[in-house]
Amino acid sequence: MATVAAASLTAIHSEAQQANAKLVFGIIGCGGIMSLHVQGLVNRHDDVEIAWLCDVDDAQTERMSRFVREEFQPTAPKRTRRYEDVIKDKNVDAIVIATPHHWHAPIALAAMQEGKHVYIEKPISHVYNEGHAIIQAAKKYGCVVQQGSQMRNSPVTTKAEKLLKEGVIGEIKVARAWTAETRSVAKPVPNTATPANVDYDRWLGPAPKRAFNRQRFHGSWRMFQDYGNGEIGDDGIHDLDMAAWGLGVDRLPKQITARGSRMMLHGHASEYPDNMNVAYEYDDGRLLIYENYPFTAYGIHGFDNGNVFYGTEGYMIFSRRGAFSVFLGPKNKPGPTEGQEIRGSRGYAEHMHEFQQAIRNGSGTKANAQTAHYSCALVHLGEIAYRTDGRLDFDPVKERFVNNDPANALLTKKYREPYTLG
To answer: Which of 86, 199, 344, 395 has its CB surrounded by the most CB atoms within 10 Å?
Structure first.
């Protein structure tokens, strides 16, 4: 009995140590949003070691390495232009991916094949079929996936979710999402020589080969189909994700209607419209509506990015800026709000903490691969409808458009060798 008790105690201690173990991270893509993630890890003193920094631009890894070394850990992270170096390191537990969209799935899939858990910035997929590949890989290799939809873990969302589930606005029939900001014209610029500190062929990766162009690089790459998904897949995916959450849908729509145009940004280099409206109808009749405009400095309902959930008893205005308000009945009687104590909470710390704890103890994540795919699918289906017939019927079981070969062809894409999905 004493032997059994000792063995049990050892097992308990082992599990406790694992639950509190320091995690070893690899950082892939060291610009933009990754700066915010790394700064959060540093400021919160998260129990992680940053072992690797990977970026095709040496200036990005140098800047981040200096920050990590001075503010977080005594040992400088290793630096590389090749993500393969990071995922092949057997000491690395997880990677955080914040590259342009066209690299998200290839890196994530390769990482999971090496047993790495992955935090993938939104959207997890550049095209529809990549979402399936990530779901399957997560299951096959037993890896934790968290999409960077941080509002899923905000205390504001938690409070709003409780109210919605209690029926504060009745049965929700329609969810609305918007991106309402100001945008300006970016005129096309000529190609130039590639900077000496940049591996541009690797930056292009699976995208078609091109000469270096600064608009097809840091920041403004979002304007081009080869690397991004336009406004709907940039800011829009956040609000589409929360629309799907508020509507409570765990499936795909059966019909998509989309339109877009060049409303005011004439001469803009972007391959996307400057305004877009998409309606998604589900098999039970519920609707999800997305819209974006380039001239609305005032936002909609006071928010540049937000949602409205329309129920049978009232409606909720919700924003990922960390706020919500409820209005009830025919006279719009004010109802509950988020409250001053959590106002402005956007979930960054909670979302990253959930990812870390899921690795340590096997718990789930709110923005797991399947949930992320349902939201990212709205980006891809909306864009395909816009680029083809405007109105498309979709089979949510077969996950194919009905009798529309050109639309189905856009569910995937060609990958430039050797940068394939493997």
So the answer is: 86
